[in-house]
Amino acid sequence: MTQGGSILDADAPVAKESEVDALKRRLHKHLRHSLGKGAVGSTALDWYMALALSTRDLMVETWMDSTHRAYANDAKRVYYLSMEFLVGRSLTANLLATGSLGLARQTLTDMGLDFDAILDQEPEAALGNGGLGRLAACLMESMTTLGIPAYGYGIYYDYGMFSQYIDGGQQVEMPERWLRHGNVWAFDRSDVTLPVRFYGRTEDALDVRNHKVRRWLDGEEVFAEAHDLLVAGHGCWTVNSIRLWSAQASREFDLRRFNQGDYINAVAEQSFSESLSHVLYPDDSTSMGKELRLKQEYFFVAASLADIVRRFRSIHDDFTKFPQKVAIQLNDTHPALAVPELMRILIDAHGIGWDEAWSICNGTFSYTNHTLLPEALETWPVGLIGHMLPRHMEIIYEINHHFLEGVRHRATQPDDTRVGRLSMIDEAGERRVRMSHLAFVASHRVNGVAALHTDLMRAGIFGDLHREFPDRIVNKTNGITPRRWLQAANRPLTALITRHLGDRFVAHLDDLRGLVPLAEDAAFREEFRAVKRTNKEALCRYVDARLGVELDPNSLFDVQVKRIHEYKRQLLNVMHVITLYNRIREGRADDQPPRTVLLAGKAAPGYHMAKLIIRLIHDVARVINADPLVGERLRLVFVPDYNVSVAERIMPAADLSEQISTAGTEASGTGNMKLALNGALTIGTRDGANVEIGEEVGEENIFFFGLTADKAEVLRTKGGHDPWQYYTGDPELHMVLDMIGQGAFSPAEPDRYRAIVDTLTRHGDYYLLLADYADYIACQERVGLAYRDDEAWSRKAILNVARMGRFSSDVTVSEYAREIWRVPVRDDPAGM
Ligand SMILES: *Cc1c(COP(=O)(O)O)cnc(C)c1O
Asked: From which domain of life does this come (predicted)?
């Protein structure tokens, strides 16, 4: 943490005494009147709450203005539907947005309080697993900064992402009651509760005009209650909200049960329906296919659409202008039931004809695909949807029928296998609905999240759909918000850049180009190194406090932080660590600098292999870190409970960013962008957005290695891939695998990691670790040598920072706004 007044401190005292006094009065007012506490005996948590409430006060007027302006102008709204919003903490972000971080630090320090300890009181809003949920949060922030009237819609989970503890080297999941002390940033809207129906049956009926209609009746109802989470844009010119729904038992349903005199069971059932929004599914990149998950998906989609339609209908008498006023972005297929739900509303509730309803849907929806991994693609059994949502299943069948009719009509010759591949129903085995086909066909635009990923979509699983709708797939490379990931997370670097370029870059990230000439300036490089050093020391203090491990800030900080998944290849990283360990012991790495390898990330609770990899990291760390022959030259550390707040500490301190997924598996990545923006060099495969990062920073400023996506695909599918040959043909690799497989790191249980080695050598090595091993090791050797040249390394790192402007989520959002949503954006978010 920075000290007040330091040259690297962007929050150096500047506030007037009168401002400080005014903030003190506001804090004391909230402490007494909102929290019922006196200054005596107040805790850091109390001061956090008081400061958060004071900051919220600065946002509320703007929020109301933003909302009223959108109403008054009948502006087109953007609705971002997402099962996940990985928001993280909000206080620092909102203090910055409202321009009051410096004042707050000064005031609280003045009051004898520990400002950083107070910031640390905020629980993390971890309503997401990883990249997908964090993207939703970054896009919401950028939409707000760009003045777009936007609403996020999602679920107000009682339990977000679990906390990760490490016990004897193994992951233990603990539930995290993040709402324990309430949530200052959300307004609970007990007045906004909407009914959501499940189960029941359908029947034909006649409406008031004697037209035949379909009705959905009986079943059970759950209420969705709204909670509005505030999101401030840069400069707080606009404030939007994310409306998150919690489940409440239906009152009517209760009454019925209570009247039957079954009080205890009625209350028990009440909590059963309320359990709908209890917990986030902690599976990243896997669809577990659980019934409760499908229920959650429909629950939030139904409430959100009812809300969206109500807002539109408050101004419009009919639906003709719906697509001109409403853009709905589906974040992955999780909200894809929005498609049959909107059709149901238009047709069953408003008597609109099929074709008109379909064209409204098509003009309204767009869909973002996040992964091509087969295990992640959502499909649901026809029987399950038919039972839970009988009317929706009928509508999905009809959508499919119309779509396939069109396909047959357009075809030059009959091709039933092609029709089968395109169908929304997978007929192989138990019949299942392909949610991606539903979302694709209903949307006017479908986007991938990096150029390579979008190309692979067109060529691979969406190939048939792409040929049917050649203009539909577009690319929208992911981005990150520079407010959180540079301005808030890296105060020392922000201060340095601001002294040289001013602070306009915070909302115009391309301004960082102004650093390019400074990369040639030795004095600037010196300052840049001092900043990195400050950040590394701060991380060292954190790791020491948390793990009791002392790290050397002079060593190369080699960082891989992300969910633990085989495709991300943390195991390949560990294999490099063991290789380097062996080389050091054999005196074959004397030209290499001391290295600290940091890993962090959570494994899905049911993902055995991922958990085993976490355990291996701990076992390897124990052996290496205790080996006197290695001394300070190599350290391996696993930082537990990776989340947004931990990411904010690690990103600024990294020298090297590990982005080493098997080419063709990581759709985009955003951790890669956070690290490069904070001055880490990337070692990576040509995968996801790494490719575009390489284009921007220049091939000479990034370390690429390994198979390309097309070569990896050929190797895996066309045969000719013999992992055993790599194993027997490379003595170093052989040694590493034997050490893992034969218990060098787990002497008490020599077979502990047998399964890991077998996966590689005997079961096909699906993610091609062995094929990429030699090139990775050689590349790491080049990294080490490059790091020893301070000046050259800093030059590269500065050029990385300077050329990351394209990966601001402001750019991403501007492209969505222009090419998908067709809404205007504020030209000058910095208000300059
Ligand atoms: C950015 C971020 C991610 C995504 O990281 P990738 O390296 O792109 O997988 C996951 N979790 C958290 C907490 C993040 O901040």
From this structure: Bacteria
